Amino acid sequence: MARGKLTAIEVAKKTKPGMYGDGDGLYLQVTGDGKERIGKSWIFRYRLKGHMSASGKPLAREMGLGSLETWSLTEARERARQQRQLLDQGRDPIEARKLLEQAEALEEAKSTPFQDCAKAYIKAHKAGWKNAKHADQWTSTLETWAYPIIGKVAVGAVTTELVLKVLEQPVGDQPDAPTFWEARTETASRVRGRIENVLDWAKARNLRDGDNPARWKGLLDKLLPPKAQVAPVEHHKALPYADLPGFMADLRRRNSLSARALEFTILTAARTSDTIGAVRSEIDREGALWTVPAARLKGRKGTRKRDHVVPLCDRALQILEDVPKRSEYLFAHEEDGQPLSNMAMLELLQGMGYGEDLTVHGFRSTFKDWCSDETEYPNEMSEMAIAHTVPDKVEAAYRRGNMRRKRRQMMLDWAAYCESLPATKTNVVPLRAG
Length: 434
Hints:
- With 434 residues, the protein is of the alpha+beta class.
- The chain has 3 domains: 8-109, 2-Layer Sandwich (Double Stranded RNA Binding Domain); 114-230, Orthogonal Bundle (DNA polymerase, domain 1), CATH 1.10.150; 241-427, hpI Integrase, Chain A (Orthogonal Bundle).
- 45% of the residues lie in helices and 11% in strands.
- It has helices at 8-13, 73-88, 93-109, 114-125, 132-150, 160-167, 180-183, 185-204, 227-230, 244-252, 257-268, 272-276, 314-322, 344-351, 362-374, 379-385, 392-399, 401-418, and strands spanning 18-23, 26-32, 38-52, 58-67, 283-284, 289-292, 308-311.
- The protein has a 4-stranded antiparallel β-sheet, with helices on one face. Strands 5-6-7 form a 3-stranded antiparallel β-sheet.
- Helix 4 (114-125) runs antiparallel to helix 5, helix 4 crosses helix 8 and helix 5 (132-150) packs across helix 6.
- One of its GO terms (molecular function) is DNA binding.
- Belongs to the 'phage' integrase family.
- This is Tyr recombinase domain-containing protein.
- Keywords: DNA integration, DNA recombination, DNA-binding.
- InterPro entries: DNA_brk_join_enz, Integrase-like_cat_sf, Integrase_catalytic, Integrase_DNA-bd_sf, Integrase_DNA_bind_dom, Integrase_recombinase_N, Phage_int_M, Phage_Integrase.
């Protein structure tokens, strides 16, 4: 088709609706009523080789090139020429433009601020978290430590250097103030992990590319000392097992719901959360078993968890028989039937004069120490008793007949020791696995 059929004057004068060809696929499209409301735009028409219509001819396509108000005749001809170049390369101009728009949209999306992505991440995941407090902790720690440094930075532009800037920010105004990683290592480690999760989420949403700069292994572990070296883990304060019989005698003399809950917790070597969340349907009185569902178990992220089955001694069953049945919870308040708070047993310890020396969780360590020092039960068996993860083959072995009997016997021996007369460690007769 001949080109250059239109002139700028003709283009300005066209008012009748229709298509006016300029040549080489370029058309002026006039729309409206032909009088007051008139619209003029540029159209590029072409046929795509290899794509046939029902009539057997190459498929015809139309592509808008913009309005006359934006693009002059000369500019429209240049835009049409660019489309013909794409056709000469075997590319579809419309599909090429879609790809370009997608790439531009992606680049624009990568400019989304980190804090917007973090808020979107929290909103998307909070329904799967155990409680609202977890979402609050995410929000507060990121607002305090991360947002002032990387909050407004495009999520696609967060680098290892910026993550380090978060972790190495000074805590305090003094010139020699320790860094966040040095002074509040546990919190800093959690913030690092949260930044890593947000950046992984952003990559899955095509908001950033490349490796995650907040990942510990292979990146930050080369730049920062391990958490354990900076701030060694402070274990829960535990009662020496030699003192346990005397403690249990004192505890049994106390007539309160929290006292019975604590006694049950010690006899079963359970976690506080497992006890206060326990419901009646989890108890098999005939089989003398308590089954803690996997969904309620605490454990290392990513590990496979199974239901935790706890053999119950006679005293533990008697406690469950004696506590008032106020709701489905085993240890429930009289007023509303709700379970004890996670602070109830700790407050009891404080009332008994152990507030500075013991934690409820520490009795699990007491149990482990007793198993190690005073019995010959295998370590894997005591690990299972406190719901720690053990290899699948080991767990399978201890689920079979004789091994199950030995595991029950271990808990019965523990209960017997808890109820024994106060004695020094040297007077304790070592128990033997049956």
